[in-house]
Amino acid sequence: xxxxTREIRRQRAVESLGVIDSDRNPRLDRxxxxxxxxxxxPMSSVTVLDNQRALFLGRDGFxxxxxxxxxxxxxxxxxxxxxxxxxxxxxxxxxxHIEPFRANGLGFYLGxxxxxGSGNVVGSFCVMGFEPRHLDAEQMSExxxxxxxxxxxxxxxxxxxxxxxxxxxxLPAEPLEIDDVHVEGVCLPSLSVGGDYFDYGVVxxxxxxxxxxxMGKGVGAAILGSSVRAACRAAVPTVSDNRLLGTAVDRIxxxxxxxxxxxxxxxxxxxxVLDLDxxxxxxxxxxxxxxxxxxxxxxxxxxxxxxxxxxxxxQTHETHxxxxxxxxxxxxxxxxxxxxxxxxxxxxxxxxxxxARSGDxxxxxxxDLVDAIALLARDRIARDDVTLLVLDRRP
Length: 395
Prior knowledge:
By secondary structure, the chain is of the alpha+beta class. It contains 9 helices and 17 strands. It has 2 domains: 3-165, Beta-Lactamase (2-Layer Sandwich), CATH 3.30.450.40; 170-393, Phosphatase 2c, domain 1 (4-Layer Sandwich). It has helices at residues 3-17, 26-39, 74-80, 99-103, 137-169, 218-235, 245-262, 347-358, 369-379, and strands at 43-50, 53-60, 66-68, 84-86, 108-115, 121-129, 176-178, 181-188, 196-203, 206-214, 267-275, 280-286, 291-294, 300-303, 320-323, 329-333, 386-393. Strand 9 and strand 10 (206-214) form a beta hairpin. It is elongated.
């Protein structure tokens, strides 16, 4: 393969990792700390080349985040795709042009290529020292093990970032505005991806909102959550009468129950439809129990249902109907929100208070409800996925 073609492929591989705009990686830092301790060297790094930049995504013994491509010997590793060993770098002509290496008086370098899943060289794991030295076979084996670990962490971090971006892209891109209705939400997975999701949209004069929470966390829950979302989107256009919402949820459950039962999982699910012409809000609560209406006068009403979560057994879902007037707000949560509240047993009053404060026009410093819950989740380090959806009928 021609060098220019190889470099184009390498650069595209680096860009696909999604790491070139990220900060240092704590897991890669841990590997470089271990390398320094094991080999007794002053410096170690995990380096990725982005065009003419060398990014030290993991580093220990120095704190320079980026240098020019040819200002680090790691480019020799990445350009050649081979282990580069210089037991006495001062006498190695390959290092003559690397001014920072020479200026710091370094005399030892050992670098190992890091590959992506297609075999493209995307980075280098290295150790550096001031004095010339030789590693025996056992030490080289330890070095290669650390390089394999660094490669695994680099790719895992990239995969997690890609999965997270994909899942977030499946959520509504912007708030919904129609007539006096404003709808928005937030979904914050506790891991890179999670099993929570929310969705909303308009069909005719009906506003649909839904929140699902798959049992568990991580990639498996995310896959099942996507299946429920797809089934929901297929069923929503069939709802010609909001009072018959339960039959649509029946179809959603039939579409996913096989997958849920084979994987031993279930989904708590809340779906509501607001008829803009009649002010009727119809809803189905399948094992959620975490929806409330805050009325214009400040009173709080919990919306309840007796249906089981989706996936446990085939069932007929009951449609409940209330009136949602201008000034009222519908709030739907996943149970991860309870984890970041002061009192999860008194969540109804606490969330109602947050809603009231967020809607106080006299308090310019009061955060929006969605922002307030998002701040709580980040400040208190949520142990579960946190999802919140708000449908606000503005007076």
